[in-house]
Amino acid sequence: MKTLFKSGDIFLWFTGAVLGVIILMVAGLLLVVVLNGAGVFWPSAVVEVRTKAGQIFMGEIKAEEEIPPGSLPENMQDESHVRIQLKIGNRDVYGVDFKWINYYELAALQYPADALCIERMEYGNMYGRLIGVKNDGVYIAKGDNAWPSFQNLAEKSTDLVRERIALEKKSIGAINYEIEQLRLRKKRLEFYNEGALAELAEIDRQVSEKQKSYESLMLKVTDLTRRAAEASVVVEIAGGSQKELPLSQVVRFYQPNQMGFFAKLQMYVQKVWEFLREDPRESNTEGGVFPAIFGTVLMVIIMTLAVVPFGVVAALYLREYANQGPFVRLTRIAVNNLAGVPSIVFGIFGLGFFVYFCGGSLDQFLFAERLPSPTWGTGGILWASLTLALLTVPVVIVATEEALVAVPRGARDGSLALGATKWQTTWRVVLPAATPGMLTGVILAMARGAGEVAPLMITGVVKLAPNLPLDGTFPFLHLDRKFMHLGFHIYDVGFQSPNVEAAKPMVFMTALLLILIVLLLNLTAIIIRARLRKKYQGSTF
Questions:
Q1: For the chain, how are helix, strand and coil distributed in percent, rounded to 5?
Q2: What is the pLDDT of residues 409-426, one digit of tens each?
Q3: What pTM does this model have?
Protein backbone atom coordinates (compact mmCIF):
# COMPACT_ATOMS: atom_id res chain seq x y z
CA MET A 1 0.00 0.00 0.00
CA LYS A 2 2.87 2.39 0.86
CA THR A 3 4.44 1.67 -2.52
CA LEU A 4 1.10 2.38 -4.19
CA PHE A 5 0.87 5.78 -2.50
CA LYS A 6 4.48 6.61 -3.33
CA SER A 7 4.04 5.79 -7.00
CA GLY A 8 0.98 8.05 -7.22
CA ASP A 9 -1.03 5.50 -9.20
CA ILE A 10 -3.84 5.52 -6.66
CA PHE A 11 -4.33 9.26 -7.14
CA LEU A 12 -4.39 8.75 -10.90
CA TRP A 13 -7.09 6.13 -10.50
CA PHE A 14 -9.02 8.35 -8.13
CA THR A 15 -9.01 11.34 -10.50
CA GLY A 16 -10.01 9.07 -13.38
CA ALA A 17 -12.90 7.68 -11.33
CA VAL A 18 -14.06 11.19 -10.40
CA LEU A 19 -13.92 12.22 -14.08
CA GLY A 20 -15.95 9.15 -15.01
CA VAL A 21 -18.60 9.98 -12.41
CA ILE A 22 -18.84 13.54 -13.71
CA ILE A 23 -19.21 12.31 -17.28
CA LEU A 24 -21.92 9.87 -16.22
CA MET A 25 -23.79 12.63 -14.35
CA VAL A 26 -23.67 14.93 -17.36
CA ALA A 27 -24.73 12.10 -19.69
CA GLY A 28 -27.57 11.20 -17.32
CA LEU A 29 -28.79 14.79 -17.25
CA LEU A 30 -28.72 14.99 -21.04
CA LEU A 31 -30.48 11.64 -21.28
CA VAL A 32 -33.31 12.82 -19.00
CA VAL A 33 -33.75 16.00 -21.05
CA VAL A 34 -33.68 14.11 -24.36
CA LEU A 35 -36.12 11.39 -23.21
CA ASN A 36 -38.60 13.95 -21.89
CA GLY A 37 -38.15 16.47 -24.69
CA ALA A 38 -37.58 14.59 -27.94
CA GLY A 39 -40.92 12.78 -27.86
CA VAL A 40 -43.09 15.79 -27.08
CA PHE A 41 -44.30 16.24 -30.65
CA TRP A 42 -44.85 12.59 -31.55
CA PRO A 43 -48.57 12.02 -32.41
CA SER A 44 -49.81 9.76 -29.60
CA ALA A 45 -52.72 7.38 -29.94
CA VAL A 46 -56.07 8.60 -28.63
CA VAL A 47 -57.82 6.37 -26.12
CA GLU A 48 -61.45 6.38 -24.99
CA VAL A 49 -62.13 5.21 -21.45
CA ARG A 50 -65.40 4.48 -19.66
CA THR A 51 -65.50 4.33 -15.89
CA LYS A 52 -67.75 2.13 -13.80
CA ALA A 53 -69.53 5.29 -12.69
CA GLY A 54 -70.58 5.93 -16.30
CA GLN A 55 -68.13 8.76 -17.08
CA ILE A 56 -66.50 8.82 -20.53
CA PHE A 57 -63.19 10.51 -21.33
CA MET A 58 -61.09 10.68 -24.47
CA GLY A 59 -57.46 11.72 -24.77
CA GLU A 60 -53.82 10.66 -24.74
CA ILE A 61 -52.20 8.53 -22.03
CA LYS A 62 -49.24 10.60 -20.79
CA ALA A 63 -48.11 8.73 -17.68
CA GLU A 64 -48.73 5.60 -15.67
CA GLU A 65 -47.80 5.06 -12.02
CA GLU A 66 -48.54 2.92 -9.01
CA ILE A 67 -51.15 4.37 -6.69
CA PRO A 68 -49.78 5.26 -3.24
CA PRO A 69 -51.34 2.99 -0.56
CA GLY A 70 -52.68 6.00 1.32
CA SER A 71 -54.84 6.94 -1.68
CA LEU A 72 -56.49 3.52 -1.95
CA PRO A 73 -59.72 2.43 -0.27
CA GLU A 74 -59.29 0.42 2.94
CA ASN A 75 -60.23 -2.86 1.27
CA MET A 76 -57.43 -2.42 -1.31
CA GLN A 77 -54.57 -1.43 0.99
CA ASP A 78 -52.90 -4.84 0.66
CA GLU A 79 -52.90 -4.81 -3.15
CA SER A 80 -50.95 -2.79 -5.71
CA HIS A 81 -52.95 -0.75 -8.20
CA VAL A 82 -52.02 1.49 -11.12
CA ARG A 83 -53.47 4.74 -12.40
CA ILE A 84 -53.03 6.58 -15.70
CA GLN A 85 -52.73 10.27 -16.44
CA LEU A 86 -54.99 11.12 -19.34
CA LYS A 87 -54.56 14.31 -21.36
CA ILE A 88 -58.23 15.04 -21.97
CA GLY A 89 -57.78 18.52 -23.49
CA ASN A 90 -61.01 20.46 -24.04
CA ARG A 91 -60.09 22.88 -21.27
CA ASP A 92 -63.04 25.10 -22.16
CA VAL A 93 -65.31 22.16 -21.26
CA TYR A 94 -63.55 20.44 -18.34
CA GLY A 95 -61.50 23.34 -16.98
CA VAL A 96 -58.35 21.16 -16.85
CA ASP A 97 -56.09 19.44 -19.40
CA PHE A 98 -55.21 16.30 -17.45
CA LYS A 99 -57.05 13.77 -15.31
CA TRP A 100 -55.80 10.83 -13.25
CA ILE A 101 -57.95 7.69 -13.63
CA ASN A 102 -57.51 4.54 -11.52
CA TYR A 103 -57.44 1.26 -13.40
CA TYR A 104 -59.76 -0.42 -10.89
CA GLU A 105 -62.37 2.24 -11.74
CA LEU A 106 -62.33 1.46 -15.48
CA ALA A 107 -65.12 -0.41 -17.19
CA ALA A 108 -63.72 -0.21 -20.73
CA LEU A 109 -60.67 1.11 -22.57
CA GLN A 110 -60.46 1.26 -26.36
CA TYR A 111 -58.68 3.03 -29.24
CA PRO A 112 -61.43 4.17 -31.63
CA ALA A 113 -60.28 4.47 -35.24
CA ASP A 114 -62.36 7.62 -35.83
CA ALA A 115 -60.90 9.48 -32.83
CA LEU A 116 -59.99 13.03 -33.86
CA CYS A 117 -57.36 15.33 -32.36
CA ILE A 118 -57.61 19.05 -33.15
CA GLU A 119 -54.79 21.38 -32.11
CA ARG A 120 -56.27 24.84 -31.70
CA MET A 121 -55.18 28.36 -30.87
CA GLU A 122 -56.48 28.28 -27.29
CA TYR A 123 -57.95 25.97 -24.63
CA GLY A 124 -55.65 23.09 -25.57
CA ASN A 125 -56.34 20.14 -27.85
CA MET A 126 -59.86 19.01 -28.68
CA TYR A 127 -60.52 15.26 -28.72
CA GLY A 128 -63.66 13.77 -30.17
CA ARG A 129 -65.35 12.47 -33.31
CA LEU A 130 -66.08 14.46 -36.44
CA ILE A 131 -69.80 15.15 -36.89
CA GLY A 132 -69.83 17.60 -39.76
CA VAL A 133 -68.65 20.86 -41.28
CA LYS A 134 -70.65 24.08 -41.46
CA ASN A 135 -70.33 27.16 -43.61
CA ASP A 136 -72.27 30.27 -42.60
CA GLY A 137 -74.00 28.19 -39.94
CA VAL A 138 -75.31 25.59 -42.41
CA TYR A 139 -74.07 22.02 -42.64
CA ILE A 140 -72.30 21.37 -45.94
CA ALA A 141 -71.10 17.87 -45.07
CA LYS A 142 -71.80 15.25 -42.42
CA GLY A 143 -70.50 11.86 -41.38
CA ASP A 144 -67.96 10.15 -43.63
CA ASN A 145 -68.28 12.86 -46.28
CA ALA A 146 -67.23 15.60 -43.85
CA TRP A 147 -63.50 14.78 -43.79
CA PRO A 148 -62.61 16.09 -47.33
CA SER A 149 -64.65 19.26 -46.75
CA PHE A 150 -62.99 19.68 -43.35
CA GLN A 151 -59.53 19.49 -44.94
CA ASN A 152 -60.32 21.92 -47.78
CA LEU A 153 -62.05 24.54 -45.64
CA ALA A 154 -59.40 24.29 -42.91
CA GLU A 155 -56.64 24.98 -45.45
CA LYS A 156 -58.52 27.98 -46.81
CA SER A 157 -59.20 29.30 -43.32
CA THR A 158 -55.54 28.85 -42.34
CA ASP A 159 -54.45 30.78 -45.44
CA LEU A 160 -56.83 33.61 -44.55
CA VAL A 161 -55.55 33.73 -40.97
CA ARG A 162 -51.94 33.81 -42.16
CA GLU A 163 -52.78 36.58 -44.62
CA ARG A 164 -54.41 38.56 -41.81
CA ILE A 165 -51.44 38.09 -39.48
CA ALA A 166 -48.99 39.10 -42.22
CA LEU A 167 -51.08 42.19 -42.93
CA GLU A 168 -51.14 43.13 -39.24
CA LYS A 169 -47.44 42.54 -38.67
CA LYS A 170 -46.01 44.02 -41.87
CA SER A 171 -48.28 46.55 -43.55
CA ILE A 172 -50.19 47.82 -40.53
CA GLY A 173 -47.07 47.65 -38.37
CA ALA A 174 -45.13 49.72 -40.90
CA ILE A 175 -47.89 52.36 -41.08
CA ASN A 176 -48.08 52.56 -37.29
CA TYR A 177 -44.32 53.04 -37.15
CA GLU A 178 -44.45 55.80 -39.76
CA ILE A 179 -47.30 57.57 -37.93
CA GLU A 180 -45.35 57.36 -34.67
CA GLN A 181 -42.24 58.82 -36.32
CA LEU A 182 -44.27 61.71 -37.74
CA ARG A 183 -45.82 62.33 -34.33
CA LEU A 184 -42.39 62.39 -32.69
CA ARG A 185 -41.05 64.67 -35.40
CA LYS A 186 -43.88 67.12 -34.80
CA LYS A 187 -43.38 66.93 -31.05
CA ARG A 188 -39.65 67.56 -31.51
CA LEU A 189 -40.26 70.65 -33.63
CA GLU A 190 -42.75 71.97 -31.10
CA PHE A 191 -40.46 71.11 -28.18
CA TYR A 192 -37.54 73.09 -29.59
CA ASN A 193 -39.74 75.80 -31.16
CA GLU A 194 -38.21 75.12 -34.57
CA GLY A 195 -41.28 74.17 -36.52
CA ALA A 196 -42.78 76.54 -39.05
CA LEU A 197 -46.52 76.46 -39.46
CA ALA A 198 -46.18 75.15 -43.01
CA GLU A 199 -43.96 72.27 -41.90
CA LEU A 200 -46.27 71.34 -39.06
CA ALA A 201 -49.24 71.44 -41.45
CA GLU A 202 -47.38 69.13 -43.86
CA ILE A 203 -46.79 66.65 -41.05
CA ASP A 204 -50.49 66.73 -40.16
CA ARG A 205 -51.35 66.10 -43.80
CA GLN A 206 -49.02 63.09 -43.97
CA VAL A 207 -50.46 61.71 -40.74
CA SER A 208 -53.97 62.09 -42.15
CA GLU A 209 -52.97 60.14 -45.29
CA LYS A 210 -51.37 57.42 -43.19
CA GLN A 211 -54.52 57.21 -41.07
CA LYS A 212 -56.61 56.66 -44.19
CA SER A 213 -54.27 53.88 -45.32
CA TYR A 214 -54.47 52.39 -41.85
CA GLU A 215 -58.27 52.41 -41.86
CA SER A 216 -58.30 50.81 -45.32
CA LEU A 217 -56.01 48.01 -44.14
CA MET A 218 -58.10 47.50 -41.01
CA LEU A 219 -61.14 46.98 -43.22
CA LYS A 220 -59.21 44.24 -45.02
CA VAL A 221 -58.26 42.69 -41.70
CA THR A 222 -61.88 42.72 -40.57
CA ASP A 223 -62.97 41.11 -43.82
CA LEU A 224 -60.29 38.41 -43.56
CA THR A 225 -61.30 37.70 -39.97
CA ARG A 226 -64.96 37.37 -40.97
CA ARG A 227 -64.19 35.07 -43.92
CA ALA A 228 -61.88 32.89 -41.80
CA ALA A 229 -64.61 32.48 -39.16
CA GLU A 230 -67.39 31.58 -41.61
CA ALA A 231 -66.54 27.89 -41.66
CA SER A 232 -66.70 25.74 -38.54
CA VAL A 233 -66.38 22.11 -37.55
CA VAL A 234 -68.77 20.23 -35.27
CA VAL A 235 -67.17 17.62 -33.01
CA GLU A 236 -68.76 15.14 -30.67
CA ILE A 237 -66.65 15.11 -27.52
CA ALA A 238 -66.53 12.32 -24.96
CA GLY A 239 -69.93 11.87 -23.30
CA GLY A 240 -71.98 12.67 -26.40
CA SER A 241 -72.19 16.47 -26.26
CA GLN A 242 -71.29 18.45 -29.38
CA LYS A 243 -68.91 21.35 -29.70
CA GLU A 244 -68.72 23.76 -32.64
CA LEU A 245 -65.27 25.22 -33.36
CA PRO A 246 -64.49 27.98 -35.92
CA LEU A 247 -61.86 26.79 -38.36
CA SER A 248 -59.91 30.00 -37.78
CA GLN A 249 -59.04 28.52 -34.35
CA VAL A 250 -57.72 25.26 -35.82
CA VAL A 251 -53.95 24.87 -36.05
CA ARG A 252 -53.77 21.20 -37.04
CA PHE A 253 -56.05 18.16 -37.03
CA TYR A 254 -55.44 14.45 -37.52
CA GLN A 255 -56.69 10.98 -36.64
CA PRO A 256 -53.70 9.41 -34.88
CA ASN A 257 -55.20 5.94 -34.52
CA GLN A 258 -55.31 5.63 -38.31
CA MET A 259 -51.79 6.92 -38.93
CA GLY A 260 -48.85 4.67 -39.73
CA PHE A 261 -45.27 5.16 -38.60
CA PHE A 262 -44.17 7.27 -41.57
CA ALA A 263 -47.28 9.45 -41.40
CA LYS A 264 -46.54 10.11 -37.72
CA LEU A 265 -42.89 10.77 -38.53
CA GLN A 266 -43.89 13.33 -41.15
CA MET A 267 -46.18 15.09 -38.68
CA TYR A 268 -43.44 14.96 -36.04
CA VAL A 269 -41.07 16.77 -38.39
CA GLN A 270 -43.78 19.34 -39.16
CA LYS A 271 -44.35 19.99 -35.45
CA VAL A 272 -40.62 20.36 -34.74
CA TRP A 273 -40.31 22.82 -37.62
CA GLU A 274 -43.30 24.76 -36.30
CA PHE A 275 -41.66 24.79 -32.85
CA LEU A 276 -38.53 26.34 -34.35
CA ARG A 277 -40.13 28.97 -36.57
CA GLU A 278 -43.46 30.03 -35.02
CA ASP A 279 -44.33 32.46 -32.24
CA PRO A 280 -45.54 31.07 -28.89
CA ARG A 281 -49.20 30.96 -27.92
CA GLU A 282 -51.35 29.81 -24.99
CA SER A 283 -49.17 31.58 -22.36
CA ASN A 284 -46.05 30.14 -24.06
CA THR A 285 -47.18 26.54 -23.45
CA GLU A 286 -47.97 25.92 -27.13
CA GLY A 287 -46.62 27.04 -30.49
CA GLY A 288 -43.01 27.85 -31.21
CA VAL A 289 -40.04 29.63 -29.67
CA PHE A 290 -38.51 31.41 -32.66
CA PRO A 291 -38.41 34.85 -30.95
CA ALA A 292 -36.60 33.26 -27.99
CA ILE A 293 -34.10 31.53 -30.28
CA PHE A 294 -33.45 34.75 -32.16
CA GLY A 295 -33.08 36.79 -28.98
CA THR A 296 -30.71 34.26 -27.39
CA VAL A 297 -28.39 34.04 -30.40
CA LEU A 298 -28.38 37.80 -31.02
CA MET A 299 -27.69 38.54 -27.35
CA VAL A 300 -24.76 36.08 -27.30
CA ILE A 301 -23.31 37.66 -30.47
CA ILE A 302 -23.57 41.21 -29.09
CA MET A 303 -22.16 40.07 -25.74
CA THR A 304 -19.21 38.38 -27.47
CA LEU A 305 -18.47 41.44 -29.60
CA ALA A 306 -18.43 43.53 -26.42
CA VAL A 307 -16.51 41.24 -24.08
CA VAL A 308 -13.70 40.07 -26.36
CA PRO A 309 -12.04 43.48 -27.03
CA PHE A 310 -12.22 44.56 -23.37
CA GLY A 311 -11.07 41.21 -22.02
CA VAL A 312 -8.19 40.86 -24.47
CA VAL A 313 -6.97 44.44 -24.03
CA ALA A 314 -7.08 44.14 -20.24
CA ALA A 315 -5.20 40.84 -20.26
CA LEU A 316 -2.69 42.17 -22.77
CA TYR A 317 -1.88 45.16 -20.59
CA LEU A 318 -1.63 43.12 -17.39
CA ARG A 319 0.68 40.52 -18.95
CA GLU A 320 2.72 42.41 -21.56
CA TYR A 321 2.93 46.06 -20.51
CA ALA A 322 2.20 46.53 -16.79
CA ASN A 323 5.02 46.38 -14.27
CA GLN A 324 4.53 43.19 -12.29
CA GLY A 325 4.08 44.64 -8.83
CA PRO A 326 1.62 44.73 -5.95
CA PHE A 327 -0.93 46.76 -7.93
CA VAL A 328 -1.05 44.22 -10.76
CA ARG A 329 -1.31 41.35 -8.28
CA LEU A 330 -4.21 43.08 -6.52
CA THR A 331 -5.85 43.67 -9.89
CA ARG A 332 -5.63 39.97 -10.73
CA ILE A 333 -7.09 39.07 -7.35
CA ALA A 334 -9.95 41.51 -7.99
CA VAL A 335 -10.59 39.98 -11.44
CA ASN A 336 -10.65 36.46 -9.99
CA ASN A 337 -13.02 37.56 -7.22
CA LEU A 338 -15.22 39.29 -9.78
CA ALA A 339 -15.83 35.91 -11.41
CA GLY A 340 -17.42 34.72 -8.17
CA VAL A 341 -19.89 37.57 -7.75
CA PRO A 342 -23.54 36.35 -8.02
CA SER A 343 -25.03 37.08 -11.42
CA ILE A 344 -28.00 38.95 -9.97
CA VAL A 345 -25.56 41.55 -8.59
CA PHE A 346 -24.37 42.19 -12.14
CA GLY A 347 -28.01 42.53 -13.15
CA ILE A 348 -28.61 45.19 -10.51
CA PHE A 349 -25.47 47.02 -11.61
CA GLY A 350 -26.61 46.83 -15.25
CA LEU A 351 -30.01 48.20 -14.31
CA GLY A 352 -28.53 51.11 -12.38
CA PHE A 353 -25.61 51.99 -14.63
CA PHE A 354 -26.61 50.99 -18.16
CA VAL A 355 -30.40 51.38 -18.04
CA TYR A 356 -30.96 54.26 -15.63
CA PHE A 357 -27.71 56.23 -16.00
CA CYS A 358 -26.56 55.62 -19.59
CA GLY A 359 -30.02 55.07 -21.07
CA GLY A 360 -31.62 57.85 -19.06
CA SER A 361 -28.88 60.28 -20.12
CA LEU A 362 -29.35 59.36 -23.77
CA ASP A 363 -33.07 59.98 -23.45
CA GLN A 364 -32.46 63.39 -21.86
CA PHE A 365 -30.03 64.55 -24.56
CA LEU A 366 -31.23 62.80 -27.72
CA PHE A 367 -34.86 61.81 -27.20
CA ALA A 368 -36.26 64.50 -24.91
CA GLU A 369 -39.36 64.86 -27.06
CA ARG A 370 -40.33 61.24 -26.32
CA LEU A 371 -40.27 61.63 -22.56
CA PRO A 372 -41.76 60.57 -20.21
CA SER A 373 -41.89 57.40 -22.33
CA PRO A 374 -38.29 56.06 -22.26
CA THR A 375 -36.44 54.95 -25.36
CA TRP A 376 -33.08 53.83 -23.99
CA GLY A 377 -33.88 54.38 -20.33
CA THR A 378 -35.59 51.02 -20.07
CA GLY A 379 -34.48 47.44 -20.47
CA GLY A 380 -33.31 46.35 -23.92
CA ILE A 381 -31.14 43.79 -25.65
CA LEU A 382 -28.11 46.11 -25.74
CA TRP A 383 -28.11 46.72 -21.99
CA ALA A 384 -28.68 43.02 -21.27
CA SER A 385 -25.79 42.06 -23.57
CA LEU A 386 -23.44 44.59 -21.96
CA THR A 387 -24.42 43.36 -18.51
CA LEU A 388 -23.54 39.80 -19.48
CA ALA A 389 -20.31 41.08 -21.05
CA LEU A 390 -19.34 42.44 -17.62
CA LEU A 391 -20.34 39.14 -16.08
CA THR A 392 -18.10 37.10 -18.40
CA VAL A 393 -15.14 39.47 -18.86
CA PRO A 394 -13.15 37.87 -15.96
CA VAL A 395 -13.30 34.53 -17.79
CA VAL A 396 -11.87 36.10 -20.96
CA ILE A 397 -9.16 37.97 -19.05
CA VAL A 398 -7.93 34.88 -17.20
CA ALA A 399 -7.99 32.66 -20.31
CA THR A 400 -6.21 35.31 -22.40
CA GLU A 401 -3.49 35.77 -19.76
CA GLU A 402 -2.89 32.02 -19.68
CA ALA A 403 -2.68 31.98 -23.47
CA LEU A 404 -0.16 34.85 -23.46
CA VAL A 405 1.98 33.09 -20.85
CA ALA A 406 2.04 29.96 -23.07
CA VAL A 407 3.67 31.85 -25.94
CA PRO A 408 7.43 30.98 -25.78
CA ARG A 409 9.75 33.74 -24.70
CA GLY A 410 11.96 32.94 -27.66
CA ALA A 411 9.29 34.06 -30.09
CA ARG A 412 9.24 37.51 -28.48
CA ASP A 413 13.05 37.78 -28.27
CA GLY A 414 13.47 36.69 -31.87
CA SER A 415 11.03 39.32 -33.10
CA LEU A 416 12.67 42.08 -31.06
CA ALA A 417 16.13 40.98 -32.20
CA LEU A 418 15.05 41.39 -35.82
CA GLY A 419 14.18 45.04 -35.15
CA ALA A 420 10.44 44.83 -34.49
CA THR A 421 8.94 47.17 -31.92
CA LYS A 422 7.15 46.00 -28.81
CA TRP A 423 3.75 46.66 -30.39
CA GLN A 424 4.70 44.97 -33.67
CA THR A 425 5.87 41.92 -31.72
CA THR A 426 2.67 41.84 -29.71
CA TRP A 427 0.40 42.35 -32.73
CA ARG A 428 2.15 40.09 -35.26
CA VAL A 429 3.69 37.37 -33.08
CA VAL A 430 2.18 37.12 -29.60
CA LEU A 431 -1.51 37.69 -30.32
CA PRO A 432 -1.77 35.27 -33.29
CA ALA A 433 -0.01 32.56 -31.27
CA ALA A 434 -2.25 33.17 -28.26
CA THR A 435 -5.50 33.32 -30.24
CA PRO A 436 -6.43 29.62 -29.76
CA GLY A 437 -6.12 30.03 -25.99
CA MET A 438 -8.06 33.29 -26.10
CA LEU A 439 -10.86 31.51 -27.94
CA THR A 440 -11.06 29.07 -25.03
CA GLY A 441 -12.09 32.01 -22.84
CA VAL A 442 -14.56 33.16 -25.47
CA ILE A 443 -16.11 29.67 -25.58
CA LEU A 444 -16.52 29.61 -21.80
CA ALA A 445 -17.97 33.13 -21.84
CA MET A 446 -20.49 32.23 -24.55
CA ALA A 447 -21.57 29.10 -22.70
CA ARG A 448 -22.10 30.98 -19.44
CA GLY A 449 -23.75 34.00 -21.06
CA ALA A 450 -26.21 31.90 -23.07
CA GLY A 451 -27.48 30.16 -19.94
CA GLU A 452 -27.74 33.14 -17.57
CA VAL A 453 -31.23 34.29 -16.67
CA ALA A 454 -31.16 36.34 -13.45
CA PRO A 455 -29.42 39.48 -14.88
CA LEU A 456 -31.69 39.45 -17.92
CA MET A 457 -34.87 39.56 -15.88
CA ILE A 458 -34.16 43.16 -14.86
CA THR A 459 -32.30 44.40 -17.94
CA GLY A 460 -34.56 43.65 -20.87
CA VAL A 461 -35.94 40.12 -21.21
CA VAL A 462 -39.73 39.71 -21.38
CA LYS A 463 -42.29 36.92 -21.47
CA LEU A 464 -43.44 37.79 -24.99
CA ALA A 465 -41.84 40.21 -27.47
CA PRO A 466 -44.13 40.96 -30.42
CA ASN A 467 -41.35 42.71 -32.38
CA LEU A 468 -37.90 41.25 -32.98
CA PRO A 469 -34.82 43.45 -32.43
CA LEU A 470 -34.00 42.94 -36.12
CA ASP A 471 -36.56 43.71 -38.84
CA GLY A 472 -37.02 45.50 -42.15
CA THR A 473 -37.71 48.93 -40.62
CA PHE A 474 -34.90 51.48 -40.51
CA PRO A 475 -32.44 51.35 -38.74
CA PHE A 476 -33.13 47.59 -39.01
CA LEU A 477 -31.26 46.66 -35.80
CA HIS A 478 -33.22 48.00 -32.83
CA LEU A 479 -30.97 47.48 -29.83
CA ASP A 480 -33.36 49.35 -27.54
CA ARG A 481 -36.09 46.73 -27.88
CA LYS A 482 -36.89 44.10 -25.30
CA PHE A 483 -36.36 40.50 -26.31
CA MET A 484 -37.12 36.89 -25.47
CA HIS A 485 -34.54 34.40 -24.21
CA LEU A 486 -34.64 30.61 -24.06
CA GLY A 487 -33.40 30.48 -20.47
CA PHE A 488 -36.07 32.89 -19.26
CA HIS A 489 -38.62 31.06 -21.42
CA ILE A 490 -37.83 27.85 -19.50
CA TYR A 491 -38.21 29.66 -16.19
CA ASP A 492 -41.44 31.36 -17.22
CA VAL A 493 -43.09 28.24 -18.65
CA GLY A 494 -41.89 25.95 -15.89
CA PHE A 495 -42.57 28.13 -12.85
CA GLN A 496 -44.94 30.92 -13.87
CA SER A 497 -47.37 29.06 -16.10
CA PRO A 498 -50.95 28.70 -14.81
CA ASN A 499 -51.07 25.23 -16.39
CA VAL A 500 -48.01 23.39 -15.07
CA GLU A 501 -48.80 19.92 -16.44
CA ALA A 502 -49.40 21.25 -19.95
CA ALA A 503 -46.21 23.31 -19.77
CA LYS A 504 -43.93 20.49 -18.62
CA PRO A 505 -43.24 19.04 -22.13
CA MET A 506 -42.41 22.51 -23.44
CA VAL A 507 -39.89 23.01 -20.61
CA PHE A 508 -37.92 19.90 -21.56
CA MET A 509 -38.07 20.66 -25.29
CA THR A 510 -36.89 24.24 -24.78
CA ALA A 511 -34.10 23.05 -22.46
CA LEU A 512 -32.98 20.56 -25.10
CA LEU A 513 -33.02 23.31 -27.72
CA LEU A 514 -30.97 25.64 -25.50
CA ILE A 515 -28.38 22.91 -24.96
CA LEU A 516 -28.15 22.32 -28.73
CA ILE A 517 -27.75 26.05 -29.46
CA VAL A 518 -25.00 26.44 -26.85
CA LEU A 519 -23.33 23.31 -28.25
CA LEU A 520 -23.55 24.68 -31.80
CA LEU A 521 -22.06 28.05 -30.79
CA ASN A 522 -19.28 26.32 -28.87
CA LEU A 523 -18.53 23.91 -31.71
CA THR A 524 -18.18 26.84 -34.11
CA ALA A 525 -15.65 28.51 -31.81
CA ILE A 526 -13.84 25.19 -31.20
CA ILE A 527 -13.44 24.58 -34.93
CA ILE A 528 -12.02 28.08 -35.42
CA ARG A 529 -9.67 27.54 -32.47
CA ALA A 530 -8.45 24.21 -33.85
CA ARG A 531 -7.68 25.72 -37.24
CA LEU A 532 -5.79 28.64 -35.70
CA ARG A 533 -3.85 26.30 -33.42
CA LYS A 534 -2.85 24.17 -36.39
CA LYS A 535 -1.81 27.28 -38.32
CA TYR A 536 0.43 28.79 -35.63
CA GLN A 537 1.78 25.84 -33.68
CA GLY A 538 4.43 25.09 -36.27
CA SER A 539 6.04 28.51 -35.98
CA THR A 540 5.62 29.27 -32.26
CA PHE A 541 5.30 25.99 -30.35
A1: 65, 15, 20
A2: 888 888 888 888 888 888
A3: 0.86
